[in-house]
Amino acid sequence: MYNILTLNKIAKCGLDKLGENYAITDNEASNPDGIILRSYNMHDMELGSNLKAVARAGAGTNNIPTDKCTERGIVVFNTPGANANAVKEAVIAGLILSSRDIIGGVEWAKTLTGDDVAKQVEKGKSNFAGTEIKGKTLGVIGLGAIGILVANAAYTLGMDVIGYDPYLSVDAALKLSRHVKKVNDPKEIYDNADYITIHIPYSEATKDTINAENIAAMKDGVKILNFARNGLVNNDAIKAALASGKVSSYVVDFPNEEVIGVKGVIAIPHLGASTEESEENCAVMASMQIADYLENGNIVNSVNFPACSLPVSGVGRVAIAHRNVKKVIGQFTDALSEVNICDMVSKSKGDIAYTIINTDHEIDENMLNNLKAISEVVDVRLIK
């Protein structure tokens, strides 16, 4: 029996995927084998001794102490692409809201009274006129699951699209419309885009990606959209640019006290992935990934460990989280010298690595202790 702690409300259709071999609770004192969460902040949370995996029902994992988990051999999963369509639709809405003063018009219409509302509408509607997105240029920074959908959708709406992503994978490139111009320098986006939307993870390296220097290189009146993460756009820089007119609109799905109420800011209360379909997709994906890891030792879509899967076969199976150093595999085979290894896979990600070994014989406690005694080993799990 595996104990799973949920730190946010997780869609039932996802939790149902776990089956009868799982006990699900929202009691933080449960010392669970796995945690499934959405936006709950885990940084001040004590990580229990039984914890083996954390699954984020969403893409971003900055609310999870990933480094601390890695040191403990705890695998952190996310669900890339599960909420991509929901965010894409929100970005398209953001493009239109930044171009047409629909929000201002709706708020004004609420104030109309009397028997001549239709006449008032015709007289005052010109105050809320805007521009169309068709024929304009959109720059997309980050061509992952969401960025690609945004780029392709914008093209079908008649926009010229420029995309930048130095880490664009082959699989992602195949999904990108051939009409999207891929560039090797974000300066080409800053120089040419009427709208810029950012879709990259937040980290120390990406913090303030949109800053005063980059804004200065943009076209006058540019519109900037941030449906990715707070911290990617520098608040002081965006406020100064809005005040000067350099930026005509800033649409942000992660508003904070520094930008709320600022003229030109369209603050959306983190609704990008808030659809029933998205929450269900993320819950299903997170649940299936954590179950495959707990039951089989397979890793798919981890942010701190390498993707590593192996079909279950043989009599014994062990999964080893370890440091990525030379000759460590030889130490594993030495520790298991009393059994025949019938299959093995080992993958690395930076300084960390992960190995799964199937054997034709039972793996006993003495062999497990030999594996645990290897200095480079972070964690060992006997799967069967």
From TrEMBL:
Q: Does the keyword Transcription regulation apply?
A: no
Any matching Pfam family: 2-Hacid_dh_C
Per UniProt, the keywords (alphabetical) are: NAD, Oxidoreductase
Q: Which residues form a coiled coil?
A: none
**Matching InterPro entries:** ACT-like_dom_sf (IPR045865), D-isomer_2_OHA_DH_cat_dom (IPR006139), D-isomer_DH_CS1 (IPR029752), D-isomer_DH_NAD-bd (IPR006140), NAD(P)-bd_dom_sf (IPR036291)
| Organism superkingdom | Bacteria
PROSITE patterns documented for this protein: D_2_HYDROXYACID_DH_1
Q: Tell me the ranges covered by the D-isomer specific 2-hydroxyacid dehydrogenase catalytic domain, including all copies.
A: 29-304
Q: Enumerate the GO terms in the molecular function aspect.
A: NAD binding; oxidoreductase activity, acting on the CH-OH group of donors, NAD or NADP as acceptor
| Family stated for the protein in its record | Belongs to the D-isomer specific 2-hydroxyacid dehydrogenase family.
Ranges of residues in domain D-isomer specific 2-hydroxyacid dehydrogenase NAD-binding? 120-272
Keyword check for Electron transport: no
Please identify the protein, giving its name as recorded.
Answer: 3-phosphoglycerate dehydrogenase
- Cite the annotated pathway: Amino-acid biosynthesis
